Amino acid sequence: MQYTVCTARRLRRLAILAATLLTTAATAGGTHPAFVPDVKDTAAAGWTKAPEAKPETIRFAVIGDRTGLARPGVFEQAVKQADGLRPEFVINVGDLIEGYTSDAGELAREWQHIDAAIAATKTPFFFVAGNHDIGNQLMLDYWREKRGEPYYAFTWKGALFLVLDTEDPPVDMPGDYAAQFHTLAKAMQTDPKGTEAKLHEVLAGVNASRGSGESDPAMKAMEGARFSEKQVAWALDVLARHKNARWTFVLMHKPAWTLNSAEFTRIETALGTRGYTVIAGHNHYYKQETRNGRDYLTMGTAGAVSHQHGPGEMDHLAWITVDDAGPAISLLKLNGILDRNGESGQTLAK
């Protein structure tokens, strides 16, 4: 009996000591109260209200198209700028490489350049497939080998992120157009301003033809948003399983809601009355639309050449914060995100 009592006392002392050590370790590790005013009377204080710790708040950045026809260095610096803002993650809306190639070596080199730019940052990076990224079967196979299926979903702090593939299946660029495109892409590396000026001359003619109802059938086949039945069934299943998500973000490359896509209409209908935001790219021009009382955003560029002039012609990222009130969206121009030296590092951004 004496042995039992002594043993019990010893165990209690060890438990107290362990608790003390744990408390000390927690304090040393930086566990602090959220807000501690160093004044006795807070009835009259130098602040409007105490700041609150909100661990459930989500903060992420969205970056637009780098291609087609990338202005050198704009995207590469953009990911560094986003990294400096310390979002929880960055997501791109597609078109990171010039693509449209059947040369496996060239395809690998283009992706190695992108991978190196992203690896230079610490922020998690999420990919969305664009038409330049998976413009043919070779490119789709490469994507799947490196990143799995181009459409996927995840949840973060109760929010659902549904990433769609608007190139399902991919449609390759006609050979004569591809040759002209790659010539321009190479010229952009040595004379970006002159090449962009030439491109705008070409685009003026193309836009005039479209305005009059003319369209090249081969190019028109590339312009639509395509979703396989397998992808649609998958998306409907994801939405059904996450019907109580605190908010839903739908990300894709081409703005399918503007392209008469019956398949996307089925996905959009399945979103129902939940809170959601749809974000795309592709058009190289920022535009906000309201559909069903929800924000539909088409991102501007992060290095790609703009296809039209106006207030939406800009290199930028979207900073999105999600709290109990839903998402707050701010646009940050790349040439306005400055480091501690007052420099953006952007020489070609608009």
Automatic annotation (TrEMBL):
Domain Calcineurin-like phosphoesterase: 59-286
Domain of life, per lineage: Bacteria
Record Pfam families: Metallophos
Listed InterPro entries: Calcineurin-like_PHP, Metallo-depent_PP-like, STPP_CPPED1
Keyword Signal: yes
The entry's keywords: Signal
Signal peptide boundaries: 1-28
Protein's UniProt keywords contain Chloroplast: no
Protein name: Calcineurin-like phosphoesterase domain-containing protein
Organism: Caenibius tardaugens NBRC 16725
